[in-house]
Amino acid sequence: MCKERRERERERSVEMEEVRLVFIPAPGSGHLVSTLQFAKRLIDREERISITILAIQSAFPTTLSSYAKSVAASEPKIQLLDVPKPQPEHPPAQDSFKSPAKSFSLYIESHLPNVKKIVTSLVSSSHASKSLDSIRVAGLVVDFFCVSMVDVAKELHLPTYLFMTSSAGYLALMLHLPIRHKHNEVEPKDSDPEWLIPGIVHPVPPRVLPVALTDGSYSAYVKVASRFREARGIIANTFVELETYAINSFFHDGQTPPVYPVGPVIDLEDCQAHSNLEQAQRDKIIRWLDDQPQSSVVFLCFGSMGSFGAEQVKEIAVGLEHSGQRFLWALRMPPPKGKGMMPIDCPNLEEVLPDGFLERTNGKGLICGWAPQVEVLAHKATGGFVSHCGWNSILESLWHGVPIVTWPMYAEQQLNAFRMVKELGLALEMRLDYKKGGGEVVRADEIERAVVAVMDKESEVRKKVKEMGEMTRKAVKDGGSSFASVGRFIEDVIGNNCGSN
Ligand code: UDP
After folding, report:
1. Is residue 6 part of a domain?
2. Which residue from 99, 317, 337, 362 could staple onto 95, CB 3.0 to 4.6 Å apart?
3. Of 29, 286, 344, which is best to mutate to test ligand 1, by the most ligand atoms within 8 angstroms of its C-beta?
4. Per-residue pLDDT tens for 138-189?
5. Among the listed residues 12, 164, 49, 158, the one whose alpha carbon sits nearest the alpha carbon of residue 496
6. 370 alpha carbon to ligand 1 midpoint, in Å?
7. pLDDT by residue (tens digit) across 366-386?
8. Strands (E) located in 277-380
9. Looking at residue 385, which CATH number applies to its domain?
10. What is the CA(165)–ligand 1 centre distance, in A?
11. Which residues span the domain enclosing 441?
């Protein structure tokens, strides 16, 4: 392109209007990290976009707000505003532990009036100052769990874009849920026939449906799902090459808003680890990995909420020892009664592990609490991953070409595990329907077999995961499918001056 033309284009783009997007992430690490990383990606890509993040505090103590602060501090075009807790404070629901999805969505809804106040003031300040630096609010980008915020957007004549932090397969399920509910209003039972879900290749056994559909959260969940189609667009943390079948299904049903597959959106710098871990602990883990042979370590990690009781911990230890593999194990246990829901690091390893385990595995295995997962998966010593199949963990492991063996625990992880094994052939099966808190104990011999299988250097799954790893990187590069989707999303945002839909 000649210099003059470039200059003219630059001048034109500077003249063009800037817009502000208001992001409302859900306060959970699996939600917040990808939403904020997407915000960063937009800023990097389009200089006319500024972003205001409305931070709803987690109901439980976490380090999420320090993560959000660090992201905002590193980007002048990202502004972070705390949403005040509702007064009187939303009381923790009696069934917080029994039906976490229900209490989570009620908790978020309780912030609606305060969100409305903030967005109204952002909109009116942009109207009031018709000066050069006025920035039009072009829409809300809300986590799918915050879909109730559509009401705020509608009142202010703004469009809402949903941000799906999970898979296109899960989106297919959510879009199907209200349709099924019209014919059958009862929550599913494990003994029901398999579900035929447009966008998911294989009929889905009810035992792998999200735990929320059977734990007392059913109606809250249907309520959330029934609003998805009110969005102007749905941004999904996935990519066409990974979930071709599901993504194509959205283009053909004639009812779903445009879907923008923009993933993988992951935090490759692992800032989350820095806010959750002492530097010394992180260094210890990475130094230990540095001393291990290439692809020799199996990594066990179960997400932000995964934990096991003492009996299960012993079985894992025996399984690992018998497998003969080197291991890095992020071991977290349920909190003591009355101390919230967040898992804790094991207070006394000697007490819960089999006698002599630590001595026998000294040098061969390392146990930690919170792990710097992205860095661990990126490390050349890591060869396999026993994972709870949270969607971020799946994307991170694909990115780094590390195969997973499935041990789902909560949320939609059973569905993720089912599809990764049966539909996509990108994971090895240990369990598909294990549920945290269900009282089941997986025995050591099964764990041993799973660990040996995932460390097999010649497995078909390993080859496929490596190939998919290359595709993940291509998808987000200039010319890739997700890069193009981000471009389409930006065009829609910049071009839309037409109020809510
Ligand atoms: N994570 C981590 N260290 C841990 C546990 C989790 O860094 O010990 C990170 C992991 O890399 C991922 C996120 O926390 O980015 C978990 O998200 P995912 O969707 O996999 O599961 P969730 O926590 O939402 O169940």
Report:
1. no
2. 99
3. 29
4. 999 999 999 999 999 999 999 999 999 999 999 999 999 999 999 988 999 9
5. 158
6. 9
7. 999 999 999 999 999 999 999
8. 297-301, 326-330, 332-333, 344-345, 365-368
9. 3.40.50.2000
10. 12
11. 276-473
